[in-house]
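Journal club side-thread
Mid-discussion, someone asked how the predicted structure for our own chain would compare to the paper's figures. Pasting it here so we can look after the session.
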Amino acid sequence: MALYNAAAAVLEGLERGEGGIKNLVYNSGFPHIRQLYALVSETLRYSPVLEKLLAGAALLQAEKKLPPLLAKVLVYDLLFGKGLKCGGRWKALARRHRARLEAELARLKVQQKVSRNEDLLAPTQASSPGASQVPRYVRVNTLKTCVDDVIDFFKRQGYSYLGQAASVDELKGLSGKKFLLDLHLPELLVFPPHTDFHDNVLYTSGHIILQDKASCLPAFLLAPAPGSHVIDACAAPGNKTSHLAAILKNKGQIFAFDVDTKRLATMNTMLMRAGVTGFQLAQQDFLTVDPSNPKYSKVTCILVDPSCSGSGIVSRVPGEEAAASAERLQALSGFQRKVLSHALSFPAIRRVVYSTCSLHKEENEDVVRAVLQEQGSAFRLVNAFPSWPCRGVAAFPGAEGCLRASPADTLTQGFFVAVLERCEEGAAPPSCLSAAAEEKPKRGEETELRAAPKKRKRKKQRV
């Protein structure tokens, strides 16, 4: 069952918007990467068909303990793959329903007037608009190294460094072994699309993190000061947690929550490899965390990146894009509102960043609007990152303070970010962003800012 459980975990990661299929597969810890990648890719390709089969056969209603994503993987391999090779109760369960599933498959073929399984699939379409142009983003892990050293390393590997990008359009022209420094985020390098670094020594040693640019925005905009206590409410697989640690310079405390034991174990390995200290992982639903617990009395910043439809994830394999029914969107948005409201209930909280990799207004602006209305005048929406070109849709007055990202407009995955801050009575509104986020840092200025403290620092490992 290890293969099927690993595949279901990758599908869950995609659904939660935690990364692309390749990153999630490579970070899964499963020993047979190609086998896992093939199973996940094919399950995604047949996903619309599998959903119809599961619904028609009422499998999930009959087997209430069977996780839906695991059911997809099992039914795919049972009907379209190489047959179930696992043992145990899940194999027995799937075979118990085989006749009904095969009957439903035959009915579907008759209904669509096709004879082959492949003919049930929608015609192969190109990836999302601009998907082929989305670059490979590489975040330099400043806990272990610095931008200049990583640039020098890639130069020694034969890459040509073109300096800092001046516009998004400039990122479109990357090809071959050329790379740029991103125009918005000071520790993000940009390479041509599909550049693979999974076997690169900088990646395997934790000196670089393969993370989409849009996924870097939540921690960047939360911008906790070194020494702060921070909560990552829905933390696995840990890229955003490691980014928070880098911003904190490993000074302070991070409390990271996730409900899945295996995902937490994988995340712990990733954080240790990245050199993160001062973190506590907990297998716990964030909604069950008690805000009045003295343990969290100093928590001033919370990052909320809850489960979402994943509709903004750029498809790199057929079928990877996520579809969501109206009922599913309603269920997701209800959960998202609860998580965001819970984050705002912590007594010392100053700033909360809410993000999704969804394109749906129901999961984005509508969630923020509902929670702000619920909070009254206690919190306000910040006009985040004014230089960012893609803004929130006009769902309510001030929604343009939110950020959106898309392959076509920002050359990233589809993403949404909102920054909320506590309003103090009789005090001036707090600053909406860190200086780094308000103005695009110049290469030299950013270096000077980082070098400003005169305290003796531990020498970083040179790469």
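Post-session note: Confidence is low (pLDDT under 50) at residues 124-130, 316-322, 427-459.
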